[in-house]
Amino acid sequence: MAEARIDEPRGAGVLATISNALVSLHKEQFGRGPTLARAHFAGNDMLVCVMEDALLPAERMMVKMGDQQRVRESRTAFQAATRDQFIGAVEGIIDRRVRAFASAIDADEGIVWEVYNLEPTGAQGDGARP
Fold it and tell me: Which of 16, 51, 53, 85 pairs with 75 at a CA distance of 20 to 30 A?
């Protein structure tokens, strides 16, 4: 039986580069980055990065006070303000256009997801950035 091979640009090295870039962006934009990050392709046109221990100290205090909704709202505002940087980082690494981007948070667990819907490749287009 043939050995499974990870294809570039979807290989483990590219996923580690994406994870590292997003952690760096979190540090740059929010003053503190997550302590654990993993990126995964979910099919051909979806990329998900899961980041743990991502809350700022003040956000952790807000969660202890029961104010998870305010943490979610502030993170949503942060995501809107930094959207172009997060999209640009991924597009630069994988050389594919991002069609849509969203960020989500579970404040109780301190986990953040960055989700990228990529331009399709193949018959509908090559997915490369213009």
Answer: 16
pLDDT < 50 stretches in the chain: 1-9, 123, 129
Name the burial class of residue 20, with classes exposed (0-12), middle (13-18) and buried (19+) by CB atoms within 10 angstroms of its CB. middle
Q: Do 101 and 86 form a contact (C-beta atoms < 8 A)?
A: yes
**Tell me, what's the pLDDT at 8?**
43
Q: Is 49 exposed, middle or buried (0-12, 13-18, 19+ CB in 10 A)?
A: buried
* Sign, CA torsion 103/78/60/32: positive
For residue 102, tell me if it sits in a domain.
Answer: yes
CATH code where residue 89 lies: 3.30.980
Domain with 37 in it: 12-121
Bond prior to 9 in cis (omega within 30° of 0): yes
81: in domain: yes
Instruction: Kindly list the distances between the CA atom of residue 10 and the CA atoms of 7, 46, 51, 122, in Å, as whole numbers in the listed order.
Output: 5, 11, 19, 16
pLDDT the model gives residue 121: 80
In a domain, 7, yes or no: no
